[in-house]
Amino acid sequence: MPELSHRRRMLVLAICCMSLLIVSLDNTVLNVALPSMQQDLHASTSGLQWTIDAYTLVLASLLMLAGSTADRIGRKRVFMAGLVVFTIGSVLCSLAPNLEALVAFRMVQAVGGSMLNPVAMSIITNTFTDPRERARAIGVWGAVVGISMAAGPLVGGLLVDSVGWRSIFWINLPVGLAALLLTLRFVPESRAPRARRPDPVGQVLVIALFGSLTYAIIEAPSTPFRSIAPLAVIALAALAGLLLYEPRRKEPLIDLRFFRSAPFSGATVIAISAFAALGGFLFLSTLYLQNVRGLTALEAGLWMLPMAVPTFLCAPLSGRLVGTRGPRVPLLIAGFAMTTSGVLFAAFEAETSNVTLFAGYVLFGIGFGFVNAPITNTAVSGMPRAQAGVAAAVASTSRQLGQTLGVAVVGAVLASGVGASSYRDTFVSAARPGWWILTVCGLAVLALGAVTNGRWARGTAERAAARLESADVRDAAGVRV
After folding, report:
1. How far apart are the C-alpha atoms of 360 and 341, rounded to whole Å?
2. Which residues contact 298 (CB under 8 A, 6 or more apart)?
3. Are 372 and 318 a contacting pair, CB within 8 Å?
4. What pTM was estimated for this model as a whole?
């Protein structure tokens, strides 16, 4: 791809951020609308989980395929296809007649979404070649998540209270269409120098692993063990198949050689932990504020601002810290803040007091604001540029998998504790194990941020990148690796 002017690079960044905005906004708006959807569609707790996890599950399953496909046939082309499918899926969601249809249309949205974020990150990585400029661009990218978290609850609450929950999907239409037209006009096409072949077996194994695991977790509270056990067997068999089959392929869907890099492996686990905490946090908070405190959707959105505003403010600061001092400092800040927030809720029942609830939201917002930029930067900076799409897709997959598992696990724990009782009577005690799970996620971010960004870890990243580049050279010469 030719070198672009500074102004053109900024425009490309803005267009890519628009795609992140509609995907992130869709998730935050949906969380505020959950109680209204529950009442209108007569959904159980597991039904609410599926409205979120059907999307994140499909997204996680297809992100790596989208990344490698974009590297092969063109990033701009795949990005534009994703905008079209995501916008169509949003229209279908707004017309869903029942819960089952809504879940199905959310999956259509996810097919489009899988072509957006990892491909956009790959475009950014190849547009901003200077490491410091790239880190700042990724910081701006992370700030968009903060914007969506700040605007989503307010916009969603206003729409739900005034028009209804179906209107939350309408906001994707103008942004999606604008991003599509701007991409067509201003984003240059780019692709990897050497095309990667599809890996259908690996793709099926990924879908089997993620799908069976998520289904087993969500349905466990209401399904006998003998019905869940086969799903666990499928998940284990799919995982074993990936570990045995993928290394034998010349061009695998999941290149396990990436994980020889300690920073890359650490970033993957940190992404899963941080976004599991986010998914569980938003799920518990939304149900508590509306079903226990009896707030309207708009009032609940206002209560989430203490979490959203720090995320928005801290994300660009995290990007600058990554560019000047590396990823360790922002990861330590993120881990400490998220852990402290989890402890407030788990040990001190922070939701029962306005002061501690406010403090818990602020701390979580700070932690999540600092965690995004170092994850992305670590995932892509140590990899060859030709593998940028796949590396970014693995990082994005980790985020979506984490959010899927967070909602599934925390929702299952909550459903088991609430049972047939009302949320108002049993929520605080039923949610406590879920808050402890989120605390453990924060501790994982803190610990891995400390140990995976030292000199030894950077050495493993350099060696892994050298092996990948050497293997690519041999593959290009026709020698099997």
Report:
1. 5
2. 154, 157, 158, 160, 161
3. yes
4. 0.84
